[in-house]
Structures are given as C-alpha cells and as structure tokens.
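Reader question, answered in our methods column.
A reader sent in the components of a multi-part assembly and asked whether the whole thing could be modeled at once rather than chain by chain. We filled in our standard form and ran it. Here is what they sent:
COMPLEX SIZE: two components
ENTRIES:
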Amino acid sequence: MSGAKGFLIAAVALWLGAVLQQSLGRYGILNARPDYVLVMLSCICLYSSRAGGALAGFFAGLLSGAITGANLTQYIFSRTVSGFLDAWARKLGLDPNAVTAALNSFIMTVVAQLILMFFAPPSGIASFLGATIGSAMVNGVLAVPVHALLRRILGPQGA
Amino acid sequence: MRENSGRDFIYLLVLCALGAMLGRMQTNARARGQFDRVSGFVRSTVNPPAEGISRLSNSTSAFFGGLFGASELTAENRRLKQLEIIARQYGETVDRLNREVDSLRALIDLAPVAGRTKVPALVLGYFPNENRVTISAGRSKGLKTGLAVVTGEGLVGIVQTVGESESQVSLISDPNRKIGALVINRDPPSAGLITGENASTLVLSLDATMPVENGDTVATWGYSGLLPRGIPIGRVNQVYNDPTTGSKRVEVFPNVSLGSIREVVVLK
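And here is the structure of the entire assembly that came back:
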C-alpha cells in the first residue's frame, strides 16, 4: 500500500475503526471486547512497508489514546512499534489471506497490549492479560471480513 | 515504498519522539482539567458519527427489547408515572430543606451543599482498560472536574477532564483514584478511603478497630465539597484483617455494573 490512494484508504480505515471503537467498543463476547483500531491497523500492515506500518501505527495510537483519554505517549509508542514490527513480518513471505489476517490480528493485539503493559503496568496484570487474550481472539475474527474488504479495494498485491 | 533499514529505524524513532511530545502536551492540558488540542481535534472528528452509531445501536436494542416485552413495559411505564408524581412532591420538600440548610450553613461561613443540580448525559464510550467513560456533557452545561457521576444504583465515577460538549469520567474501578467512603450501617459510620481493583471489586481501607461486616452498604463520605455525602457505592463482599499494619482490607462489590451503563447524571 503506497501513494496517495493507500494513505487515504489507511486514514479512512483507522478513522472508521476509532468511530466503531467509540460507539460499539463496549459490546463484547463473554467479556472479550474488540479493539477496532487494532483490527484496522493489523489489516493495513499486511499491505504496508515498515515505514508505512509505523506511520499507520502512529495514527492508530493517536486515535486510540485521544478517544480513551489515555496517555498518548504510551498508546502512540505501543502502536507505532507494533505497526513497524507487523509490517516487517511481511518479509516472512506469507500470502495475505483470511487465515494470515486473523493470525496477524491476534498476534498484533497481544504484542501491542504487552508493549502498553510494559509502559503502563495495570493493577491486575492477570486480568489484563486475560482481557488481552480475549480481545485478540475477537480481533482475529473481525480481521477476516475487514481484510476481505481491504483486499477487494486494494487488489491482491495492494495499491 | 522501498525498504531501507537505517532510514526506517530513524523514521520509527522520530514518530516515537513525536508521540512523547504529544503526550507531554496532553499531560500539561490534563493538569488544567482540559483536553489538549490534538486530542480535542481527534475527538471532534470521531465523536459526532460515533454518537450517531451509539444512538442507533441503543435504539435497535430497545426496539427488539420492546417487541418482546411490550406488556411489561406498559405496566412499568404506568407505575413509573405514579412514582414520578410522588418523587416530584418529595423533591420539592428536599429542595426547601436544602435551602434551609444552605442558609444556616451561610450563617457559619460554610459553602452550600454540593450535588444539587442534576445534569443528564449519555455514555458515548466505555474503556475498561483505562477505567474511563466518555459522556455527552461538558463545559457548556456547567461541568467541571471533580463532580460526581451517578446512576440510579449509585456512584459511577468522577469527572476528570472537561471539554466543551463532552467530558471524561474516571470510574470508581480506577486503582489510581481514592474516594472518601463510609460504611453507613454502623453507628458511628466507619470511614476510610476506597479505591478500585477491577470492574467488579473495590477495596476499602479501614482501621482495624472499625466495625464492618459482609453485606454492609458503603457510600460516599462527602468531605471534599464536590462529592455529596451518602451516594451508594457498593456492598461489602469480604473483610480481611491485616495484623501487621493494623488495618482492614474490605472488598466491596460495586452497585453499578460499569460495563452496561448508558445514561448517567452529573451532580453539580
């Protein structure tokens, strides 16, 4: 994903993720709540360069931090590094399909939340980790239709 | 974009440094009880459509709930109308008594009793990991930091940051927030500080000599001047004695189910 079209699609996807997070973020399955911004970020990173993944992660962190009112530094740092690493993982040569999108979203959620936990240790680490695993599973499921839509817009190789 | 290791890592560092700068701006603004400009801009682009989707999802849920429970809802509506008439009469008496209390407090140079005016608001967003909710009322409705946010069941949290038309509320489950609390079943009431542990457990610290039992009601102390006294917080679930510190760790189950609130009232 590159150029003005890629940037625009990524910006709209992240903004949509933030809108969904703000309005529907409270709904979950068995206390496992989705993180729509991370879902969008993980799908964008499947088609991004390292620098593009870091930039998408920066804006994802900014959006998440701003809507939750959480510390912007912690959110931006965790999402930027996660986006960078996720986009780097493209070098493994995996074909972006439904299964890799789900796995990618699961792993990225865990990594992003672990980095966040390192910078802002929560009071109950066990419950935070439980919520992270639950959130990662829901994100993995949500990533499948989001990836399908993104692939349809970008084409198999990305824009 | 062509991959270039050195340039990409510098790019990553620059973005992280920019994040740190934005975080510093946010911390400075929050110290003044305000949103920083960047967060404010992001929120102004995200919140209007989010509010629309929130209303739509609430309406859809209410519509299908109404389809299956119309007769119960009609009966409940009738009963609530009767209760409203009684509450209005009671409210007038309370207002008159509050005016008397205020005039007597003014005689001895004390501030008026807090929490008289009620500002209704919708919950726009719930963030359990951050122990925060966003509500649809702000400076334009006279809100300021430190005010109590409640539902019919009890205390939800405290207003932390105020924007023009929205505010962020730090929930009672926040481990970084301490609220003065009383065990109101005891005479005299046992007083201590309550703090959050997780969404379903709050911890009240009491002196070892203070009486408390499972099932006792915990309510706000009201010593701050912003938080009215006697707002229910929760019920005592478990009491642990700590002989080394000479204190009691009292676990409290909150009255309000924090994950499912949709409407709140701010007491100002």
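What stands out: The radius of gyration of chain A is 14 Å. Chain A touches chain B through 46 residues (CB under 8 Å).
Send us your own complexes using the same form.
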